[in-house]
Specification:
The complex is a heterodimer of chains A (about 220) and B (about 170). Chain A has about 220 residues and is an all-alpha fold. Chain A is built from 9 helices and no strands. Chain A has a single domain (about 35-215), classed as Cytochrome Bc1 Complex, Chain C. In chain A, helix 6 (about 125-145) crosses helix 7. Chain A is globular, with a radius of gyration of 21 Å. The mean pLDDT of chain A is about 95. Chain B is of the alpha+beta class. Chain B has one helix at about 10-40, and strands spanning about 50-55, 60-70, 75-85, 95, 110, 120, 125-130, 145-150, 155-160. In chain B, strand 8 (about 145-150) and strand 9 (about 155-160) form a beta hairpin. The N and C termini of chain B lie far apart (about 60 Å). The chains are: A mainly alpha (about 220), B alpha+beta (about 170). At the A-B interface, helix 3, helix 4 and helix 5 of A face helix 1 of B.
Chain lengths: ~220, ~170
């Protein structure tokens, strides 16, 4: 049945080469942990991506219950965590995954750095990787406010005060981030929009570029 | 089973698919259950609320509004509900829900001049007789819901509106 559906589509659209191109792409021996165990360091990038997928999925499900509003945000988080089945797990995945994604990304960056894999012709991919790093930090910063508890509020106050110390544009940056003079209703909706729409869109674009460049240039050779 | 029945490639394919499927299921199961929770939650019970003293009731359906406490996820509030209440010939008190069984508009008593003494829904001209039975040939396919009711110390208490079998 599945085979028939596949054949029907393939006959019309010739989709086999699309996935064959990925599936038949050989993993070079020096990056394959089955050949050299030390090659596990090459997994950190993939693990970062894997956790990112979990973050996107669990985040999508969390928005089924969460409301970005100063009256209801905390209550809705409390409700989804304590009243909804598996709420602890789904929120836990998003909470712990957020830290883990930073850890994995950091390890990936260290590997690329110490192996000198960022050198010509791969400088551009390093730059894109650094942009991804900033986007991830932005996701962490904006997501931290959303539960709207004391820790979230004061961490964001401190974060925005740090932005305030930028020379010249500091005050503008503060008002822009807070969406007004105080950290309140407008900050929460703003951070929510940035967290679930703007930064993920940027992240997907950058990751696409990151992966295309790896494919185009191939992975760097053995040390 | 002979040795040739399954190739090395097939075996690895099955193993990988199995392990991968197990991991994907372990990841997705909590999230899917999380999303399906409203379907699997039990309906909430509703306490009987005092609506009116029974002296107010007559043979003519009269509309009474009453407040119930509603819990909507994390949001609790007082919500106004209405009931059409009258005394039947045998002395029973009938309390009907005003929500049309066609598409949920609000029915009114005796407002259609060409069909007096019936409940009438203006949205699609649905009609019900006095006991709430839907008139055949009009839009609704079931009679009006009846409230759980109780009389205590001369007062009428109403609970949840329950559906009845179609006419």
């Amino acid at each position: 049945m599945l085979q028939k559906i596949y054949d029907w589509v393939d006959e019309r659209l010739d989709i086999t080469p699309l996935w064959r191109d990925v599936a038949d792409h050989e993993v070079p021996e020096h990056v394959n942990p089955a050949h050299h165990f030390s090659a596990f360091v090459y997994c950190f990038g993939g693990l970062t991506f894997f956790i990112t997928v979990i973050q996107i999925l669990s985040g999508m499900f969390l928005t089924m219950y969460y409301v970005p509003d100063i009256v209801n945000a905390w209550e809705s988080v409390y409700y989804l965590q304590n009243e909804v089945a598996f709420g602890v797990i789904v929120r836990g995945m998003h909470h712990w995954g957020a830290s883990l994604v930073i850890v994995m990304m950091f390890l990936h960056t260290l590997r690329v750095f110490f192996q000198g894999a960022y050198k010509k012709p791969r400088e551009l991919n390093w730059v894109v990787g650094v942009l991804i790093f900033f986007v991830m930090l932005g996701l962490g910063f904006t997501g931290y406010l959303l539960p709207w508890d004391m820790k979230a509020l004061f961490a964001t106050k401190v974060g925005i005060e740090i932005a305030m110390t930028i020379p010249v544009v500091g005050p503008i940056a503060k008002t822009f981030l807070a969406g007004g003079e105080i950290i309140g209703a407008q900050t929460l909706t703003r951070f929510f929009a940035i967290h679930v729409f703007f930064l993920p869109a940027a992240l997907l674009g950058l990751m696409g570029a990151h992966f295309l460049m790896i494919r185009k240039q191939g992975i760097s050779g053995p040390l | 089973m002979s040795k040739e029945d399954i190739s090395r490639r097939q075996f690895l394919n099955y193993t990988l698919t199995g392990v991968g499927g197990f991991m994907a299921a372990g990841m997705l199961m909590p999230m899917v259950r999380f999303a399906l929770d409203p379907i699997l939650k039990e309906g909430s019970d509703q306490k009987l609320v005092a609506v009116t003293s029974i002296e107010e009731l007559s043979n003519e359906p009269k509309r009474f509004d009453f407040k119930i406490k509603q819990k909507d996820g994390w949001y609790e509030s007082d919500v106004t509900q209405s009931a059409w209440v009258y005394k039947a010939k045998n002395g029973d008190i009938i309390a009907l829900s005003p929500i049309c069984k066609h598409l949920g508009c609000t029915v009114d008593w005796n407002t259609d001049p060409s069909h007096p003494n019936q409940f009438f829904c203006p949205c699609h001209l649905g009609r019900y007789t006095k006991d709430g039975t839907n008139v055949k040939g009009t839009a609704p396919l079931a009679p009006l819901d009846v409230y759980d009711s109780q009389v205590k110390d001369g007062k009428l208490y109403l609970g949840k509106a329950k559906p009845r079998k179609g006419a």
